[in-house]
Design goal:
The chain has 671 residues and is an alpha/beta fold. The chain is 22% helix and 21% strand. The protein has a nine-stranded mixed beta sheet with strand order 21-20-23-18-17-16-2-19-22. An eight-stranded parallel barrel has the order 3-4-5-9-10-11-12-13.
Amino acid sequence: MTARLMHPGLPMTTLCRTSLRFSVLGILLAAGSASAAEATVDRDAKHQIIEGFGFFGAHDVWWGSERDMVDEQWVRLVIEDLGITMWRNEYYPPGDSISGQQDADWDKQRPVVELFKEVADERKVPLKFLLTVWSPPASMKCEVVDDAILEGSPHPDGTKGGGALCPSRRGEFADWLIDGLELHADLGVDVYALSFQNEPFFWQSYNSCFYAQDWYAETLAEIGPTIKAAFPDVKLFGAENMLEIECGRSDAGEFDPWWYTGLMLDRSDALAEVDAWAVHGYSDGVNATPTSKMARLWSEFSGAVQATNKPVWMTETSGYEDSWEGGELPGAIDLAQSIYAALRYGNLSAWVWWQGSELGSGPPGEYALMNGTEVLGKRYYVSKNFYRYVRPGARRVDVSSDDDEVLVVGFEHPGMGSFTVVAINVSEQEQPLTISGPGVPETFDLFRSSSDADCAEFGSVSADGIRLPPRSVTTLVHGNVYEDRASGGIGGAGGTGGDEPGTGGSDPGASGQGPGAAGETGLGGDPSAAGREPGTGGRGTGGAPANLGGAEVSTGGRPPTTGGREPAQAGSDAESGGTAPRDTGGVSAGGRATGGSATGGQRDVPTGGTTGGVGESAGSDSGAYDNDDTGCRCAVPGHRDGRHPWATLLGAFGLALSFARRRRGRVPSRS
C-alpha cells in the first residue's frame, strides 16, 4: 500500500494552524447584557448578487476507487439538502511516461458530471460547473532554471513538481482547454467558468505548474480570446492564489505590483479577459468580528478591484475541525464567521469549499464537509445555513447590527420572492434580536446550528421575537428558497394564466421553469412548505493538528517572481526549531475595520467587542507574537522605494514557500 499526497488545494501550514487556534480564542468574547439587539435593514442599499455556493469533487476523492465516485443518494443530498449551486472540478491532463497515470480521467469523471446535471435539472437548480487546471499536459511544459523558461527543454517531472507552460505552446494549451469545455458541452453542460491554473505560485509534488506573475498575465491575455471565441459565455477566473498573499498593502486597498491581481489590473489585455477575481481562503485568521484580520483582508481586496465591476470569488478553503468550537484548528462556528466576513466585507459572489465528501471509517476530517451520506459534519450544517437559504440571484442588502456580538448579513431575492438573514451570536449569552426596517417581513422561518442543533428547523418567529442561543448560527427565511417550488413563472400572476400558478395544477413544480413576471411581484400563490427535515450525523473531532514550528522567514527561498521549488531547510520543520509565527492582526478593543468605505457604500462597521486580537493572549505557549496590526503579512512595500524587489519580498516569499511546503497531508491510497 503506497502513500499518496492529499489532493491539490488542501491547507494548512503549521504557522496557519497556530494562528488560527489563537484567532478562535480571540473571539471568545466577554459576556454582555441580554438586552435585545436590533438589526436594521436598508433594502435600498444593494450590494453583490450571489452566483453560488459549493464545493469540489465527487462522492470520494478522485484518487479513490472508481466505484466510489458516483452515488445518487449523495448527489441528491448535496443538491436538495445542503443546497450547493456551484461544483468545482479538476480538468486532468493525460497520463504520460514521466508522471504516470492521473488520479482521474474523463471516463472516471463523466458519470459524476452526468448525475449532477440530471438531478440539478430535475430540481430546477441552476448548478454552475467550475473547471480548474492543476497542470497542462506534460508535452506542453518546459523546464525553469534561474528564473527563466528553457524553451525546448521539457520539464523533467512531467505534470508534477512545478515547471512552466512553454510560451510557444500557449496556442496548443488554449485548444486543450477548449477540448475540456467541449467534453462537457457534449453532455449538455455549459461550463460556467474556467481557471487555467490552480495556485500558480506553488511548486508541488502533485500536478502543479508555476507562473511568475507576469507569465500568468501574459498567458491570460494570449489564450483568453481563443477560448472565448469558441465558448463566448464561459467566464475566466483567477488567479486562485492565496488571499493573504494577494491582499492590499495599505488601508486604501493598493496592490503590490508583484502579485497576480496587481499585474492583471495593470495590463489592459489581461484585465479584458478575466471575468471574476478568485482567491483561496487560506489565511492566518478567521475571526470575523469587525476588528478581525479577515474583515480587513477582504475589505482591502474587494476595495482594490471594485472599480473593475467584476465579481469576487473564494474558490477553495478548508482546515476547520468538525467540532463546533474547534481546538487546535477553528471549528464550525468559525467557518460561519469566515463566510460572513467574506460576504459582508469582501462582497463575495461565490464561496466554494475544498473537498465536499471523503469516504472513511470515522467523522469527516478537516478537508471534507461529509463522509458520504453516512456522517454529515458540523461544517456541513453551518454551510447549509448559507448554501440552502441564499440562492443564486439573491442580492445582499445592508443589515446593520447595534450589538458587536451579533453578526448579521441579509439577502433579498425578488425572482423567488424570498428574504433571508443570517445572524451569528458569538457571545456566551442568549441574545434577543429584533429585525426592523422598511419592507421587513413580519415573520420568518427559523433554522439554527449550534453545539446541539444541526441546521434544525424551529418553526415561525416574528421579526421582533427572535432569540439567538449562545454561540449559534441562525438563518431566518421569509418566502420560497426552492427553485422547483417557485410560485410564479410561466402562467403566474401578470402572465397569461391569471392569479394561479402554472396552468392550475396543484403541484408547484408545474408552474414553470423558473421565476417569471409573477415571481418578480411575489403574486401567484404561496410557496410550498419550506424546508426539509435536517439530516442526521455525528460530530467529529477533526484531524490532528500539525506540529508547531517553522521559520518565520526562509533564508534560502527565491523572491516571489521566481518561484523557487523549496524553501530553505533551516527552521522549516518543527524538529529544527525556528521562530514562532508572527501574527499581524492584533488590535486593541474598539478598533474599526479599515477599508470599509471601499466595499460599495458600506455602513460604518461596529466597534469591536474583543479585548485583543489574534495572538494577544498573555502567557501562551506558542512563542512571541508581534501585534503590528498591519492586517496582511504579505503587505510589503514592493520596490517603489528603491529597494531591490528580492530583498523587499523575501519575507513574504519565505512565508509562502513554508506555507506551500506543508499545505498537503498524506492519506493512504484506496485505489
